[in-house]
């Protein structure tokens, strides 16, 4: 397909993403399903360009605006060619500039082609820096002003830059080996026989890194349940909980069950895991995944069904809450989120997170532990939610996760008793996990 047509398809997808609250990856998949004529190379170009534009959109637009303001003549911020330039810049180092030989043929009028040379010359010298450090951070790493402000306040000027830079680097493709069916070595050998090379992850003992991106859901090893696609950081949450084979575990926001399946493998298909969620469609997917994985110690039910079960009150050794959150820790793989998450939506999520903790606290047995986890990078969705819960529930006390994490060699990821993962430090998605324990007056005095 011609370059101009590829960019046209890319612009159409970008427009859909910007007008929708659905994840970019689902919109891209839907777009491709309705356009069977696109070949694999076309799809790769369009997808990579779309993600690149979402990652670097604001910086590109800032560079273009600065250059356009220097008297290029014939261009405005709404010209199609500027959108092409933004798209092009998103695919290269944003300090570079487009090749005139590539872009000129895309312009129909001679005046536009003549103006392009002047524009590109100014683009080389464009300096988007301002006297406002928040604006500079937002422009440099293409994030909204409100998020740049929060990052600087919470992480400081230097670490916030390192964090933002890491969030614009595409995430690796990680797998979690299903140890109910294979060891990591056996899974690697199986994948190699199917033409896929992998290496071991640094922190997760059951994690693999796929060397070359491919559709892992189509290969026989996946269909036979040898692995799940799961970020290394997400895998470490299951390791942190370390559920014992004799325990009763409640995965209260199980979704499609990525962490549920990992805990089932850790428990060696013993004990009992109750997986609940409000989304019946995702629970249906969990059931399919559990059958494929050979995980038989999982009971699936809706959140409403769970609340009606009196026998589950104060019955679980562990209640694990992977709370719905802003998802800002996953921007490496979901760059469109930064343009849909707002300060208001974060405030609404925090209120929802607290309600979820309170709704499931009654299922924690005496001396049982509730784990609260998010893939957010914001204090208000993490430590602040647990603090608000503890203010209302004196029967719970904080649990320091240092010793638990230390058993898995993860003690350095614990700060002030809670567990943190960052893309600029560990190379994973961003995660938080805190723990609290129910202590009745009788058990507290023991």
Which characteristics define this entry?
single chain, 446 residues, alpha/beta, Alpha-Beta Plaits, 4 domains, four-stranded antiparallel sheet, 47% helix
Please give a structural write-up.
This protein is of the alpha/beta class and 446 residues long. The chain has four domains: 126 residues, no CATH class; 33 residues, no CATH class; 56 residues, Alpha-Beta Plaits, CATH 3.30.70; 213 residues, Rossmann fold (3-Layer(aba) Sandwich), CATH 3.40.50.150. The protein is 47% helix and 15% strand. It contains 18 helices and 13 strands. The strands form two sheets. Strands 5, 6, 7, 8, 9, 10, 11, 12 and 13 form a nine-stranded mixed beta sheet that branches. A four-stranded antiparallel beta sheet has the order 2-3-1-4, covered by helices on one side. Helix 1 crosses helix 3. The longest helix is centred in the N-terminal third of the chain and has 29 residues.
Mind sketching the topology for me?
Elements: H1 3-18, H2 24-33, H3 40-68, H4 80-90, H5 100-103, H6 110-124, H7 133-141, H8 145-167, E1 174-177, H9 184-193, E2 198-200, E3 207-210, H10 220-223, E4 227-229, H11 232-241, E5 248-251, H12 258-266, E6 272-277, H13 280-293, E7 298-302, H14 303-307, E8 316-322, H15 343-361, E9 364-374, H16 383-392, E10 396-399, H17 402-407, E11 414-415, E12 418-421, E13 431-438, H18 441-444
Parallel strand pairs: 5-6, 5-8, 6-7, 8-9
Antiparallel strand pairs: 1-3, 1-4, 2-3, 9-13, 10-13, 11-12, 12-13
Helix pairs in contact: 1-3, 3-4, 3-6, 3-7, 7-8, 11-12, 15-16
């Amino acid at each position: 397909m011609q370059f101009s047509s590829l960019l046209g398809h890319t612009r159409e997808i970008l427009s859909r993403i910007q007008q929708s609250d659905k994840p970019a990856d689902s919109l891209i998949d839907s777009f491709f399903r309705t356009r069977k004529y696109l070949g694999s190379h076309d799809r790769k170009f369009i997808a990579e360009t779309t993600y690149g534009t979402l990652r670097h959109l604001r910086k590109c637009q800032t560079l273009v605006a600065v250059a356009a303001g220097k008297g290029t003549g014939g261009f405005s911020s709404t010209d199609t060619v500027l959108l092409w330039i933004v798209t092009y810049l998103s695919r290269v180092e944003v300090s570079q500039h487009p090749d005139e030989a590539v872009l000129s043929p895309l312009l129909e009028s001679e005046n536009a082609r003549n103006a392009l040379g002047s524009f590109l010359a100014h683009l080389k010298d464009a300096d988007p820096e301002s006297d406002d450090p928040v604006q500079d951070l937002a422009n440099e790493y293409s994030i909204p002003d409100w998020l740049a402000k929060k990052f600087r306040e919470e992480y400081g000027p230097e670490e916030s830059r390192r964090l933002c830079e890491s969030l614009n680097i595409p995430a690796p493709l990680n797998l979690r080996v299903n140890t109910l069916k294979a060891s990591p070595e056996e899974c690697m050998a199986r994948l190699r026989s199917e033409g896929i090379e992998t290496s071991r992850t640094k922190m997760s003992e059951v994690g693999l890194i796929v060397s070359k991106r491919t559709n892992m859901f189509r290969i026989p090893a996946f269909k036979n349940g040898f692995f799940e696609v799961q970020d290394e950081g997400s895998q470490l949450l299951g390791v942190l909980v370390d559920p014992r084979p004799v325990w009763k575990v409640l995965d209260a926001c199980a979704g499609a069950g990525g962490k549920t399946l990992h805990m089932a493998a850790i428990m060696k298909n013993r004990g009992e895991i109750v997986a609940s969620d409000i989304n019946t469609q995702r629970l249906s997917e969990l059931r399919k995944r559990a059958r494929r994985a050979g995980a038989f110690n999982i009971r699936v039910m809706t959140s409403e069904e769970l609340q009606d079960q009196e026998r589950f009150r104060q019955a679980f050794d562990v209640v694990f809450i992977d709370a719905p959150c802003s998802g800002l820790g996953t921007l490496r793989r979901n760059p469109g989120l930064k343009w849909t998450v707002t300060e208001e939506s974060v405030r609404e999520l925090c209120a929802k997170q607290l309600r979820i903790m309170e709704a499931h606290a009654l299922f924690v047995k005496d001396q049982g532990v509730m784990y609260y986890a998010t893939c957010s990078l914001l204090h208000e969705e993490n430590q602040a939610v647990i603090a608000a819960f503890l203010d209302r529930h004196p029967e719970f006390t904080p649990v320091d996760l240092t010793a638990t994490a230390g058993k898995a060699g993860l003690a350095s990821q614990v700060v002030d008793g809670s567990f943190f993962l960052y893309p600029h430090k560990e190379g994973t998605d961003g995660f938080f996990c805190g723990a609290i324990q129910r202590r009745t007056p009788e058990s507290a005095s023991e």
